[in-house]
Every structure is written in structure tokens, then in C-alpha cells.
Input
Amino acid sequence: MLISSATNPRIKHAGKLLKQRKFRQQHGEFVVEGVQAVAEALAQGWRLRQVYYHDESVRSEKALQVLDELDARICIELTRPVLTRLSERPENPAELIAVVAAPRDDLARVPVSDDMLAVVMEEPRDPGNLGAVIRTADALGVGGVVLLGPTVDLYGPKTVRATMGSLFAVPVAHVADVDGLAAWLAKVRETAGELRVVATVARDAGPVHDHDFRGATVVVVGNERRGISDELRAVCDAAATIPMTGAAESLNSAVATSIVLYEACRQRAAGA
Ligand SMILES: C[S@@+](CC[C@H](N)C(=O)[O-])C[C@H]1O[C@@H](n2cnc3c(N)ncnc32)[C@H](O)[C@@H]1O
Output
């Protein structure tokens, strides 16, 4: 099938998925652009509903491989202007743009064990920060990310892009409020045994390198503007601060998360 009109219902559908959070939620699907990300979605077993491409723009081995592996019925050729219209980067559209089914939003997807490492983010508002945390979590082998309260859309195009494909490798789930989180933590403790829930705070806690991250740990990160709420702080067992010496009042939340996770992984690798 070749689609040559931007008013084709499938293209209009994908366009709405890119623009409207409500539409994404209604249909349980979202759009991902780029060969690496589409290949990762496929490799991780996510359901690709359509994969759009323009024949003459498909050049890389990887893109050809992905198209080859997929059921031909979901691979849909577009004319160059239609692909450009659909792309988030019209000046340089990716070889592949896919419509992907979102998995069920379920905390049970976050793996639990006696050496688990997971992240809780309270009300992240910036898609770049959320995407960067998911990307770091993937790179450092973190088991899952839990989003607490109202958040930026995990499946919005800016978040998806910022994850650079890691969205498909790390389980991410939402919990509505601190009571829901506390109930999940209680359940985790039944399996993981001793679990430490560590609040990261911009000041007034012991330095992060003095904290023991070797057992089952959940690292808690606050909202970009307000930090960690009192209610959330109350369900944490400890707090850690990355020492800062300059004039900055705090670190960016994704940067702080990366530093703390690096320290946790360093300690775990050292085993000491
Ligand atoms: C931009 S900061 C929030 C700033 C907020 N005004 C406050 O005072 O908490 C966002 C989050 O990043 C983390 N963070 C930022 N700087 C940190 C630091 N130096 N040590 C540990 N965590 C930090 C905390 O989780 C914080 O809630």
C-alpha cells in the first residue's frame, strides 16, 4: 500500500496521536520516530501497529532489517511529502515512524527482588527530564521507574524522543498518590525483605556516598519545582544529598537521579 495524501485517515490518526494526550490514552497507542527506537520496540516485544516509511529514504541496514522482520501488512509506504508531514523533524525525517501499542499501566511490571534498584519520580513535568531518567535507568540496569501523581505524558513525542529507545527496555508504571505508592512498597517488602526507600534532597541530608545502596533500594526524586512532598518524604526511610559547593540551589532532577544511580551502581559493583 502507498499513501500519497496527508488526509488519509491513517495519517490523520497518527498525527492526532502525536498531538493529543487524550487521543493517545483513548487509543492506547503512541508514535515513535527513528530506526533505533523502532528496532528496540520490536526487540523488546512491544506491539507495532503500523510502521511508515518512504521507500527511497530507507537506506540503513537496520531499517531494512526491521522492515524485513515485520509482518508486511503493517509496513506502509508513504510518499516523501507525507512522511515529512508526519515527522517531528520535517527537515530530516527518520527512515521509520511507527505507531506502537502502549502496554498496560501496571506496577506489577516493575521487577521486585532482594537486590532490586528502582526509581520513583514525583510529578515529573518536563518531558526531557523524564526521558533522560528512563534512558539513564536503562543504561545503569535499573529495574523500573514509578511515576507518582500527575505527570507529563510518558508517551508524548518529546518524552519518547528523550528516552532514545530506552522507553522500550525499562518498565515504567504510574501510581496515583502516595497511599498507592505506600501500598506497593508494602507489597514489595513482602518479596524483597529489607527495602530502603531513599529520598534525594537538595540539602540537609547526609552525603550520597555515605549511604549504603547495596540492598533492595528505591531512589525517590522530587518534582522539578517543589522537590519531594512532605507526604512522600514520610514514606521514605532515609535521605541523601549530592554535596554541592557552588551557588546553584539544586541540581536538575535528571542529573541528580543519574548521579545517585551511578553511586548506587558503583557500590553494588564494588560489593564493599
Ligand atoms: C530541581 S530539584 C527541586 C528543587 C526544589 N526547589 C527543592 O528545594 O527541593 C528536583 C529534584 O532533584 C533532586 N536533587 C536536586 N539536587 C539534588 C542534590 N544536590 N542532592 C540530591 N538530590 C537532588 C531532588 O530529588 C529534587 O527534589
Remarks:
- The chain has a mean pLDDT of 96.
- The CA atoms of residues 176 and 218 lie 17 Å apart.
- Residues 200-202, 221-222, 224, 227-228, 241-242, 244, 250-251, 253, 256 surround S-adenosylmethionine (CB under 6 Å).
- The domain at 107-270 is CATH 3.40.1280.10 (Alpha/beta knot).
